[in-house]
Design brief:
4 copies of one chain form a homotetramer. With 313 residues, chain A is of the alpha/beta class. Chain A has 2 domains: 5-24 and 117-310, Formyl transferase, N-terminal domain (Rossmann fold), CATH 3.40.50; 32-113, Alpha-Beta Plaits (2-Layer Sandwich), CATH 3.30.70.260. Chain A is built from 9 helices and 13 strands. Chain A has helices at residues 2-17, 45-55, 86-105, 129-139, 158-161, 178-188, 206-212, 232-239, 274-297; strands spanning 30-40, 59-67, 74-84, 108-113, 118-124, 145-152, 168-170, 194-197, 216-220, 243-250, 260-267, 301-304, 307-310. In chain A, helix 7 (206-212) links the parallel strand 8 (194-197) and strand 9. In chain A, helix 4 runs parallel beside helix 9. Chain A binds chain D through residues 17, 20-21, 24, 128-129, 132, 136, 140, 142, 159-160, 162-163, 269, 271-273, 275-276, 279, 283, 287, 313, and chain D through 17, 20-21, 24, 128-129, 132, 136, 140, 142, 159-160, 162-163, 269, 271-273, 275-276, 279, 283, 287, 313. Chains A, B, C, D: InterPro entries: ACT-like_dom_sf, ACT_dom, Formyl-FH4-Hydrolase_C, Formyl_transf_N, Formyl_transf_N_sf, PurU, PurU_ACT.
């Protein structure tokens, strides 16, 4: 517990700087907020949003906006702003956003205070690469998150998680997974902002997703939609592809069909065995998953139907 | 000449669509403008700029903004907007930008009407890859430019340029290059918006740059600052590097020292001879130069000292 | 025709050097051969093959060998060798290979004299990027081939092919494609060593493949097996992928299912329209197809079932 | 100690499989050897080497050969072979190699038994990414090595190394580094086959290199020869480059001038601060260093002057 507390205070500074230059150089009394806005496009949205923020004393330090079409498309915007005493200013700001942005323009908005890091639970099974890469980046303060728990359906990785000072909870999954999911919900519902499936290798049910009340990110070990389902590296070897890849996506009821957040590939050749593909792919998987988690926790992602808008730097 | 005219009318449609979704779906009476703003950062700039645009009836379809620091940094912003009858609205809009953005906030601004494609002259020597890639992308309508002239210090490429219907002007460069540069200025000064050195292999003088009155983009056949100067591929082979690259940059008085726009690399190995490096590098050079020209002509680049801000999509 | 002749003599030198260092520095009287050997693995193959070559006076300048397993796998080997007067030595060498390698070891072999460039016909439709990239690399002497004919089912690209001095043959394809294929066979059967489908966009029949008697390479505009069939870029946009790719493969009776030679990808984002994907993908398609054609014509590829062994440099 | 022993036995299997298919499927009584041969090229080397191996009962499972020129170049060859009871056969094989390959052909050779993993000491300072990536890959059995010791000039990383069961030795380096180097030599001379500088950040002396009697691999945090020396990321930011990289090289007396083994890069932009470059670069550094260590320990590298021949798969 002491370890966790220590991490927490160390990580506070990390959360402030994780947004890059936008959040640098802030003293303790200045807050940094991120405002996401999305909905049907119409003229004047950028102006309206920036007017609200400016009126409340905010200085916009980063703004990116996307419209799917010039007329009649979908609009999405991410705005990072600095505001002294953000926590105190928040209620009045929220009231104006409700009235002018939601009410007046018919848009959805969400406001994120970077002082509140997202609480993340990581699910793993027997392979360590994705899990350890997330924990290592968290410990290096590269990820603006609090890792609250590691949940695993096998006990194998307990010793590897131990040095990080994060609770490791072994929840076996048997034929009927409803019991395990009930245990997961007891542990996590209302206590996490994100669940990451770090090669968890188990399908989660629609009911679990609904009751969890938090988004779930999965890493699939292929370049989707190629090699959907189980055993993608063996399928890749069998097909003789020259690249293998990995895909991080939000989990929906349809296996491997959720909105894609990030993908990448690595070159392979006829000399690579299936085991070589597994090994080369592992490097891509951990990189892709870590990027997806970072972007989600930096509030860079807007889901639009089955696609994602990812606001880069 | 008929060929050039035909290209010109074909390319009109290209200019409107080259900005991607931002410019799509516009009928003939709606203009699309791009506004670049840069200068010392202070609170309220985004709001002020969007207020001016909105007041003039513009709909912001893309906005990207960058600050080098939260307080006291440099600010840069690119805004794409749709505005019916932009040409007619421009004088009043410019007056407000002068008063409120330049006068009130101390910022520089430039306004670009996408209906006016940039006039580009390409300088070449004896190798065709960069020149042809630009001409080919221009003919495919991938680049929102008018290629007005190809200037070469050798006659070798005349036959390859001929099918594109662009005037090919052979201006030999002898020991004293002042005569050639005078001829270049007679041809181009006041008649081009950009000069592209497509492996021209000649140093241009500071005087030429001043009198030209338009930016010049060069492609250097190495990953700068590695292998500055002549013969970079031979130097790369000699050093035994495992990647070779190319760098597109604005030309300044200092050889190979101007602000870098884009760079890329390709993998090489001990099996590659210097000639192999030249060949592999050629593919990188043409790709890097074409991207740099595109970004410049889409008004995506703000020069900040010896660095560039490149606003992506 | 004069143009074709001129190209041909120019390309002679290219064929000698296209193999890289292996083929460099040879005078006119020394031949360079490439020997491919494949079949069931057993001890002693490398030694036996090199003994035969050495006995005939050949100097091995490059050798790569691949076994799918230590015991009981499939063996493949590519050997490049220099041999004075290869043409004269060939019959005796072939007899020994037949006896010792085929007869004694149960392996298949093929011997390629680099003095005989492969005759290549390129099939195109309306898009120029893959076709022009091949023609341009051929003209630059990057590809060790003779392009004998361009065949197209539309006349659109005739003017773009004309400057290269290659016959352009327009063979329309109507509902029943058997007539067109009969015309293709009249033009090509026995006269080409390779047919390249450079975004030809037509399915060729099993009967055509059999009667042609030469391999056919196709470029598919997706990262197979993702987005098999028609309209892959629209499918990619719809699925929201973050990379698009291209695949060069040998054509078999099953559409998009033949042995993959090469694949590559390029990063895309939510800002890219389908048209943007088409444009970005075009750069990958031309690069991937040109690499596949080069490797085939440098005798680097051994087909093993539905997979390829590609011997690199 | 028990932990180290346990690792060692686990790693035995790893050593056998780390060579990929070449070494797969071997029972306990069959050895796998790797033979490196280099020197002035002449006809018949491949044949002579394979004849010696075949005569001793070896089955060649992988062979790659490189000549810098067709005539008068430098020759290098890597041959992987299977041989029952390699240890027993070695003396006679070595005698023949001495007589026929060294004596008869004037070549240098070295023979490596994959049953003997290379003993590796890792030097670190305060940053953990390169060190942990090597330890993690060693624990996953991706690297065919025995990590014998971690040496650090600061104590910071002791706790992170502890879970791996490797001795962590803190050897402070003060103004005069001769004392530290003497301690290093007491620890390592004659006891290691390779020293890896994993962001050790200290220059090692020529005397140390001589007395160590083992190669040393360093990771430099830039794409050499760009940004040689200290502070490369700050220099990269200052120059405004669009890619940052890392270089693994053998250490020689000249700082950052030794033969390059591997390099790679990652894309950066104007939005990245120096700290962002450090973070993005760290991922490239650890990947590049791990590849270099793997290739060295799989006997894939031949040093030819200031360049390396790296035999891929």
């Amino acid at each position: 517990m002491a370890g966790v507390t220590a991490r927490r205070s160390r990580a506070s500074a990390a959360a402030l700087t994780a947004g890059g230059p936008a959040a640098a150089g802030l003293d303790g009394t200045t807050g940094v907020g991120r405002l996401l806005v999305q909905g049907p496009d119409r003229p004047g949205i950028v102006s309206a949003v920036s007017a609200v923020l400016t009126r409340h004393g905010a200085n916009i330090v980063s703004l990116r906006q996307h419209s799917t079409d010039t007329v009649g498309g979908q609009f999405a915007q991410r705005t990072v702003f600095a505001l002294p005493d953000l926590a105190a200013a928040r209620p009045a700001l929220a009231a104006d956003l409700d009235r002018e942005i939601a009410g007046g323009l018919g848009l959805r908005w969400s406001l994120h205070d970077t002082a509140h890091r997202k609480r993340v639970a990581i699910f793993a099974s027997r392979t360590d690469h994705c899990l350890l890469d997330l924990l290592w980046r968290w410990r290096r303060r590269e990820l603006p998150i609090d890792v609250t728990t590691v949940v695993a359906n096998h006990p194998d990785l307990a010793a590897e998680v131990e040095p990080f000072g994060i609770p490791f909870v072994h929840v076996p999954v048997t034929g009927d997974k409803s019991e395990a999911e009930a245990e997961h919900l007891r542990l996590l519902a209302g206590r996490v902002d994100l669940v990451v499936l770090a090669r968890y290798m188990q399908i989660v049910s629609a009911g679990f997703l609904q009751r969890l009340g938090a988004p779930v990110i999965n890493i699939h070990h292929s370049f989707l939609p190629a090699f959907i389902g189980a055993g993608p590296y063996a399928k890749a070897k069998d097909r003789g592809v020259k690249l293998v890849g990995a895909t991080a996506h939000y989990v929906t009821e349809d296996l491997d069909e959720g909105p894609i957040i990030e993908q990448d590939v690595v070159r392979v050749s006829h000399t690579d065995t299936v085991q070589d593909l597994v090994q080369k792919g592992a490097d891509v998987e951990r990189a892709v998953l870590s990027r997806a988690v970072r972007w989600h926790c930096e509030d860079r992602i807007v889901v639009d139907g089955n696609q994602t808008v990812v606001f880069g730097r």
